[in-house]
Amino acid sequence: MITNRVGQQEAIEQECFLCILDPQPCTLKKLEGYIIDAREVRSEGEMVPFITINVGTELAALTLTRYYRSLIQALVDLGPDLHKRKLKLRVYHLPPAIRTTENKGRLVHHYRANAYTLAILEPDTVLNITDLSHAEYCSRQYLLHRLVSSPPSAAAIRGNLVHHSFKELLKEHGGSRPVSDHADGEGESPLSTLSHYFEQALERSSIDLALANVSPDEIRVDVVPHLESLATWFQKQYATLWDMPAATMHGQDTEVDEQKNENGVRAETFLLAPEIGLRGRLDLFWKQTGRQRLLELKTGGAKGDLPNAAHRWQVQGYHALLAVRRDSKMKKALATLLYSGTPGEAVDFGIPFTIKQFQRVNENRNILVLSHVTGMPPAPPGPSRCTKCAMLDQCTQVSSLLNWQPPELDTQTNGNVGAQLIAPSQRTDSNVRGHNESRPPIVQPQDRLFFAKYYKLLHLEGRESELQQALLWKTTVKERIERGSAIDNIQPLEMPEQTEQDEWEQTFLCVNTSELRQGDEVLLSDGDPITGEVVTGTIIGISAEQVRIWTRELIAHPRLIDRYNNSIVNVRTLQNLIRWLQANTHLRELVVGNLRPRFDSTPIAPRADFNVEQNLAVERAMQMHDYLLIHGPPGTGKTSVVAWMVLCRITC
Fold this sequence. Notes:
By secondary structure, the protein is of the alpha+beta class. It folds into five domains: 4-121, CATH 2.40.50; 124-244 and 263-378, Lambda Exonuclease, Chain A; 387-455, no CATH class; 475-564, Elongation Factor Tu (Ef-tu), domain 3 (Beta Barrel); 597-652, no CATH class. 36% of the residues lie in helices and 21% in strands. The chain has 19 helices and 23 strands. The strands form four sheets. Strands 16, 17, 18, 19, 20, 21, 22 and 23 form an eight-stranded antiparallel β-sheet that branches. β11 and β12 form a beta hairpin. The longest helix has 30 residues, at 445-474. The N and C termini lie far apart (83 Å). The relative contact order is 0.08.
């Protein structure tokens, strides 16, 4: 029997999102507590995962399904003091307790999970869906991707341009405009539409092209086959693309209203599901009455067995997000994985979704989250996978720097690769290979100490930022306004303005008492950024009475602005740790404090309208040989001083 104290954990009474999938309704919608024990036990001749959580004054002992064996093994690997780590577990959709016992004066409720029971580790740690696909080959790659940046490339630019063109094609022909084979027919041909938007986007991509050292003609030659294959696919699929089968639920036809043929197409649709600790941005998403559909476009080389396993992970993750957000009257979303790199015509694959896929997505997420919150990767997967891993060099390097268990190599099949491994006894004076460097930098003991110290500090900073982000769904709008992180009751001042990049800028009237500033990342929503309509954006202007926001897409009824603490800055700083190892020895010695910055004694004429400190800053800037740090509170003239420094440098 479930006590009131345990049952009271359900703060928000709502329909269990898993009851929509499971024919048998649950007894306990949600149970949450801190893990105090995890192990595998033998039951009916097989090993099953078993976990105990502290839910306050009582305990819950849970026998889970096989999908949680990998999580239990990873928790056991953390050592005997698991209870001290304060790892939170949230469990959804539980059957009745099979029995209640007592342990040291505390009641223990025993549950046996069914196939639909979902256990979420650290749910307030929200991972991106792409994290799941990045770590498909090996879970260690999740932390490595956070440390190692991806340089600009022609493939990335091609992907962005093709995505943009296809998105605009679907929006323009969203079931309401005719489509023809020829540009002079009743409607514009799909290829003409794609080409039009591609050329517009290409013209705006000059900086990206320059950074990747790629010419517009090279990109054009690369992109045209993708546009042609997408145009052929769209021409053939157009009739059925917008006419999805009518949805039924429990044998009842879904009511078809006047909006049946008004297909709302949204690109870059942002979904946030803190219930399961996931977020994502769908390439393309559209709804009809009682039905919804998502499409994920892949523009890379369409070689080997399709669909790619990592791409499947991504689409299954989006399925999971939509399952949490699905209305009980809404049929399960149709999902299409589309490859534009196939010659002649793009190839599509329908990706079904069942509770088995939901559990596998959550299984993978839990393992990555455990790495995320501890800052430590799981054990290497073994020689056969390590030896073939595309991130072997980076894994070897970072494992040495942070004293992780190094990758295991098959020296019998590849002796040269095995020679790259850094032995633990040599870690204080060995060379490690820098990312994308032909020569490995010399890494000294103090470099390792510096790297490990700041990796730990950045990890703590990232965790604190996640706690602040969780306030978005753990506090009310009123509380967020009082904290200075939200603006409510905004009113559009004018019609949204479309930018040259086909994005949007909007100005709203408001009573702004927040601490939001220009440049802050925000969520613009209809009043509920979690379950309502929402889009990410950036504040480009703000005052006490108005706020102007840039967004990728529009929403119908914008009402609320919330600060959105994403991890971009934290991840970029982590990646700078790796870049720091590639710097010359003199600069690294300066950074760790072993050398003092150098200055000469060249006299610099003072500026009459600057005070003593401002003139001193300019003088030292002109005399420096390494670096200069200028510090000053707001209003002390830093901007003016820096502008004068630049002018002096140019004219001297």
